[in-house]
Amino acid sequence: MPFTQEKDPTLGTPKVIALTNKNGMEITLTSLGASWMSCILPLASGKRDVVLGSPNVDKHTEQDVYLGATVGRVANRIANARFSIHGENYSVSANQGAHCLHGGKDNFSYRIWAVSQLSAQQVIFSLTSPDGDQGFPGELKVEVSYELTDENQVIIRYKHQTTKACPVNLTNHTYFNLAGEGSEKTVLDHALTIHGDYYLPTDKAGIPSGDWRDVTGSYFDFRQSKLIGRDFLQDSDQVAAGGYDHTFVLDSACIDGRKSVASLSAPEGDVKMNIFTTMPTMQLYTGNYLVSVPGKTKLYTPFSGVAFETQFPPDAVNHPEWGERYSPISQPNQIYCSETCYQFIF
Asked: Could you tell me the EC number(s) of this protein (predicted)?
């Protein structure tokens, strides 16, 4: 699987690409951050955009909440922006206090990716990150493809290769509101199911303690569908994060990309979204820090949208005791692939 021949992404302004399927569903994407900007469902009641996004590309360059972005090299947090591989110590870009968040100050969400549109329903974004970029070792080649199928699935496929052993943890940071991005309904009005028996407690900076906590008997138990708002801010873990901003360890029987790992239902029940992935964990983030963010039809505020970031666990590079399945370390000259699918039922 050779990598797509990439054009110089420093030339020109960010591109906007639209994909449509035979049902009239449409998504728009931009080469700035390989980002997902809109998702328009053709409902009987009219068209509804169910993802948060900036009003235009210029505004998208100004936002810093990762609206729809591909984040990397390493999604989520690296404690104290440090790690070691094979006895060699690395210090990377710290952009959340002492810690590295989503790849550092100049992470992938801020870059213009090269674009190769394969069809009316699929596009590939590509990026090369040089050795030493944000402090990370090895040259990294990345491809992210979006496909909109006639089954109303948005399939995001990731492919990467590095020249040195390096943590790589790519994810998508789209915020969803199935009532519509301009709705007064918040994520707290949505019903959610997550097939995961454990979650990772964190400190106030989002750094995991290292423990895996059983969801049984906790407010993190979404194994049966419940409103996100039902048990909201009812425990110290949520209070510290301002809501849900935690990683769930997904049921290992579900991470084959064919079984649903999570389902979200709109407040009125007229739209449902099922999530499929090959990644072992997922960050649930209820948009706790969306503060007056310019959106397409309104200013976004806390809980305007919810993100489901499929990934390796946060700070996993510093927790080898979690095991190989949860390790983000990519070995040189191997091609790694993963995918996540968001399927809309309406």
From this structure: 5.1.3.3
